[in-house]
Design a protein that fits this description.
The chain has about 180 residues and is of the alpha+beta class. The chain has helices at about 5-25, 35-45, 45-100, 145-155; strands spanning about 105, 110-115, 120, 135, 140-145, 160-165, 170-175. It contains 4 helices and 7 strands. Strand 4 (about 135) and strand 5 form a beta hairpin.
């Protein structure tokens, strides 16, 4: 039975059971729980509808468990594909750098390498002066990497515990 059919069956049988219960109340017999249960079971298919609903719940649980496993598998596959794509991009960048190519026009894409600004490398946070730390309401202050990077780039300052890397390249791929 399909989920909508199960829902319809339970609703229909519940209405029938409510009608029986109202009839038993009118007769003053609703205080006998065993009589009520026997009457509902004998006069309606509510118990069978509930059994089918329980089976459907079990099926839903199985599907949820299976789908979660598939999601984990697909996440692992997605991460592997992302790593492969990153390796390929790196190989293209290396090939272009090795051949002094900053731009390539291909039939399917235009590739260009652009020099990125030097990025911050924190070698030892303990050596970085207090002015580069942002006070946090909880456990510890947070390093103000923007201010630290700006002073290293613009001021040419030597700051203990931090330095700039040589920068890197960024590959841009535009599809035609």
């Amino acid at each position: 039975m399909t989920a909508p059919a199960i829902e319809h069956s339970i609703r229909r049988q519940t209405e029938a059971a409510k009608a029986l219960l109202a009839d038993l109340r009118n007769r003053g017999a609703d205080d006998d729980a065993e009589l009520v249960a026997d009457t509902i079971e004998g006069e309606t298919n509510l118990m069978e509808a509930i059994e089918e609903a329980i089976a459907e719940l079990d099926e839903c649980d199985v599907l949820v468990i299976g789908l979660k496993a598939k999601e984990a598998e697909f996440e692992a596959r997605r991460k592997a594909v992302e790593k492969r794509a990153e390796r390929i991009r790196t190989l293209i960048e290396q090939a272009m750098l090795a051949t002094d190519q900053t731009s390539l026009k291909l039939p399917t894409a235009t590739l260009s390498l652009t020099k990125r600004a030097a990025g911050l490398i924190v070698t030892d946070e303990a050596d970085i002066p207090a002015k580069y730390w942002v006070e946090q309401p909880r456990p510890a202050p947070k390093l103000d990497k923007k201010a630290l990077t700006a002073d290293l780039r613009e001021g040419g300052a030597t700051i203990p515990g931090a330095t700039l890397d040589n920068g890197s390249f960024s590959l841009t791929v535009r599809r035609k």
